[in-house]
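Re-run requested by the PI after the first attempt was lost when the workstation crashed. Everything re-entered from the original request form. Ligand of interest: adenosine-5'-diphosphate.
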Amino acid sequence: SQRIRVNEGREDEIGRLVKTLNSLLDRLENSFYRQKQFNADVSHELKTPISVIKAQIEEAIDSEKKLTSDQKNILLTIKKQIDQMNQLVSQMLLLAKVDGKNIKPDKEEFDLNVVVDAVIEEMNNLASEKNISIKKEIREGQEFRMKADLSLITQLLLNLIDNALKYSKNSGKIKIILTKLDGFYRLNIIDDGIGIAEEDLDDIFKRFYRVDKSRSREYGGTGLGLSICSWIVKIHGGEINVKSSLKKGSNFEILLPEE
Ligand code: ADP
């Protein structure tokens, strides 16, 4: 982050004013820093209690025979909310990292195609709950070797495919197209879901922005996913863009350099 300073060195009234201004800027910067650190610490401290509660609730749900259906429904509702909280806290932890200074991706070599397959596999349960098919298109025999931060690229794919599922109707179709270009890869995640209105397109990458607050409650989610995606792409020197039309679907396009 850049320090904002006004040149000091004058002994007159303006000089004193400049000193006061600089000391105010120092205090402002410190308070920003403390606020960020506070967010990171709170998120971190919430992780353990949340995972304990989650485990206990899952155990209670599994002891099915002893429960009435009302009790079971209550537990399922609590579980859904805990999962939501868990997602929010994980994303806030990631964002705390984003706000840190000069974060560089921790690069290793892997095949992007293999990672895409693994993420599709992981999302398959969720997809079949809504009877949605996820199909991948690549040119056979091509290699998609790249050097990047594997855990962040996995997170990026999870967020985008999770959104495609969340904002699709039952029996929708999701298509993932992986293309090799000169020195970089293009990834398209295309759904035929609810789509995004033109006037919202610029805002969806902002933190906590959700197109329809009331509707989003029913879909779950935090409004942080896409801001994390755009950060991940940016620190890799890539690009993320979206084309979408209401009620027809969305196409999220990512460009990532090979290394
Ligand atoms: P959320 O956790 O709410 O999904 P995101 O940052 O991932 O947060 O997305 C921001 C908003 O963009 C969402 O609330 C949703 O309104 C819209 N959005 C994202 N992906 C899609 C998609 N594939 N189809 C339609 N709307 C989407």
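Saved to the shared folder this time. The first strand starts at residue 108 and ends at 111.
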